[in-house]
Amino acid sequence: MDDSSVSGDGRTRPHPIETWPVTGQKEPAVSDVDALISEALVAARGSDVRLAERQLDRLVVGEPAAVEAALFGRAVRAVGRLWPRGWQPVDVARIVTRRAGVRPARLLADVLAADRRGHATAPTWWDEQLAALDARVWWADDARHLADWMARERLDRVTALREAVEVLAVLDGLPPVAVLRPPPGANPGTAPPGPSGSRMLDRVRALLAKAESTGYPAEAEALTAKAQELMARHSIDRVLLDAGPVDRPAGVRLGTDAPYAGAKALLVQEVAAANRCEAVWSDDLGFSTVLGYPADLEAVELLYTSLLVQATAAMLRGRGERRRTSSRRTREYDDAFLHAYALRIGERLREATDRTSREAASAEGGDRLLPVLASRSEAVRQRVETLFPGVTQGRMTIRDAEGWSSGTAAADRAVLDAGAPPRRLRDGRRSGARPTR
């Protein structure tokens, strides 16, 4: 298993507060609603389940319109406080889904849509994230949103209030993270451009779609290698077209949830390194932050998403073959398989990038291209040091030699141009230090 395992939901567990029983108490006044919500949130983040249910009961017996309006308004204000602290809509949606569930994440999408109405303008990428989350205003009145949401989801009031409190508890408990892009209302001077929409990236997406759908591992890897070459060429073309000074690197966050979070984080790191980016894994929050330049970040996002599908399919095929010859547990096998697959795929992607870079330097003149690439790599490293001054290196531990061998073989089936030999540790295993927070 990977030594850097996910550390639970990452939320603090404050000592439960004392309260009075529900039986016989009077219906709370409207002015008390915010206090009741605050107490319910503290209880929800605690470990006393009975206390949490008692505090929820106090909300249930409250005046419906006042409680529901206060909950929704408080959630909208909570997400608004997250934007200057580095969070983006997709990040918040990912962690709410992880900690609260799919249906509460749909409630969050409504909260995000309501928050967007409070901004006269927003960056294009922000609205694209909201559109991807289907965050849109479909209700008529914010004060009645929760009642409308209950009807839409066919929920009873107790369940709806419980899930609203859970969402708010997640939002209130999120720590600050690195600010990768200026949120709405901030100085947009360093905001990266949106997707380029180039024909080359359309070709890349088509190649990766074929790689995901084919049943032949060799064909999948050949298509992926070709996609990497095209993206490397696209990145170099963007470098050559940028005549101005080198701008500050941007960043994206990619999900690395369980199971096999460490292997997913390693895959992010390998894909990032092949595209001149740096990755930092926040295992407690379930994502890796990738820093680099826009064209390179586009490549990392596309490749990681596709390779995760391909790696999972290859792992399942390997697991099926293993069951015919062994009755041992599969979790350690799967973990070793995915780690080995990530490292070997990373080597092959770097080979494709290096080959494309050499060809471009020969065609364009190395004295023009190579210094720019070097300065960009240095800028990315400096950006990592600025945003993550406490970053540490973690070591992975592999406990299933069969899974490691199968994962490496699965990534080696395609015959591509020969590259540098694989790096190895003294004990014969491939090296794979993991950056973590």
TrEMBL record:
DUF7168 domain mapped to chain residues: 265-373
Region of interest: Disordered? 1-25, 402-437
Composition skew (Low complexity), residue ranges: 409-422
Q: Identify one Pfam family in the record.
A: DUF2786
Q: Which domain of life is it from?
A: Bacteria
Q: DUF2786 domain: from which residue to which, for each copy? A: 199-238
State what protein this is by name.
Uncharacterized protein
List the source organism.
Answer: Micromonospora pallida
